[in-house]
Every structure is written in structure tokens, then in C-alpha cells.
């Protein structure tokens, strides 16, 4: 009998501890998601306030960030005549924005950037 009381108490205590932990994790995760979605609403290409914003990947998911690395994206091309701005895969900045985008991955791209998939813009 005494053993049953102990087991029941242990079970109830652990149940509430686990519930509290899950609730805390849910609140933290929910808060992060809300912040991410707020940033996502500002647009994938960043905003209009300058160079630093083209480095802001806070609203971009990890898979898309990894694509940048796999494709060898750098924010400043080391080739004089080859950069994102004259690449056929470059997405021009939306009105008022300084950061462009790329067809290959989400997020802001520097016009002066470059990656291994650079293709000359023939138009
Ligand atoms: S493919 Fe590479 S070089 Fe071309 S726009 Fe995208 S990141 Fe820039």
C-alpha cells in the first residue's frame, strides 16, 4: 500500500513537471515563431535601410541558409565583371529596397555578391 502511494505521488509529480516543461518550451517556441513571422512579413529581400540589411538572415530558414553556403555565395565578388547584379538568376530589388534576391535561394542578396552558379545576364 505504501509503495502504491509512493508510485502514485511520483507519477503525479513527474506528470506536472513534464507538463510545466512542455508548456515552457511551447511558449518559447511560439514566441520565436511569432518573431520570425513578423520579420518574414517585412519581405525576403530585407528592407530599404542599407547594406547591413542584406546580411540579415533572421527570417530565413536553415535549409535556405545552407544553400548559400553550398553554392559558395559571398557578399562581394572577387571577379571584376561577374557579380549578382549581372547574373541571369539575380532578382532585382523591389521598389525602395537595396537588397536583391536570387532564384536559387531565399533571402537578401548583395548586388556585388557572387556564387559558383553565376550565369551571364544576356539581356
Ligand atoms: S546565382 Fe549566384 S551569382 Fe547569380 S544572383 Fe544568385 S547568388 Fe548571385
Descriptive overview:
- By secondary structure, the protein is mostly helical.
- The protein has two domains: 1-41; 51-109, Irregular (High-Potential Iron-Sulfur Protein, Chain A), CATH 4.10.490.10.
- Helices cover 40% and strands 8% of the residues.
- It contains two helices and three strands; from the N terminus they run ααβββ.
- It has helices spanning 2-41, 62-70, and strands at 90-91, 100-102, 105-109.
- A three-stranded antiparallel sheet has the order 1-2-3.
- The protein is globular, with a radius of gyration of 24 Å.
- Residues 18-50 have low confidence and may be disordered.
- Bound molecules: iron/sulfur cluster.
- Homodimer.
- Residues 33-58 are annotated as: Disordered.
- One of its GO terms (biological process) is aerobic electron transport chain.
- Belongs to the high-potential iron-sulfur protein (HiPIP) family.
- Specific class of high-redox-potential 4Fe-4S ferredoxins. Functions in anaerobic electron transport in most purple and in some other photosynthetic bacteria and in at least one genus (Paracoccus) of halophilic, denitrifying bacteria.
Amino acid at each position: 500500500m505504501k509503495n502504491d502511494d509512493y508510485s502514485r505521488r511520483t507519477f503525479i509529480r513527474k506528470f506536472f513537471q513534464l507538463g510545466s516543461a512542455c508548456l515552457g518550451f511551447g511558449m518559447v517556441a511560439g514566441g520565436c515563431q511569432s518573431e520570425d513571422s513578423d520579420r518574414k512579413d517585412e519581405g525576403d529581400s530585407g528592407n530599404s535601410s542599407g547594406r547591413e540589411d542584406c546580411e540579415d538572415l533572421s527570417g530565413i530558414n536553415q535549409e535556405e541558409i545552407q544553400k548559400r553556403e553550398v553554392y559558395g555565395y559571398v557578399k562581394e565578388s572577387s571577379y571584376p565583371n561577374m557579380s549578382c547584379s549581372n547574373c541571369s538568376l539575380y532578382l532585382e530589388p523591389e521598389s525602395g529596397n537595396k537588397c536583391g534576391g536570387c532564384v536559387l535561394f531565399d533571402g537578401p542578396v548583395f548586388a556585388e555578391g557572387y556564387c559558383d552558379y553565376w550565369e551571364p545576364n544576356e539581356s
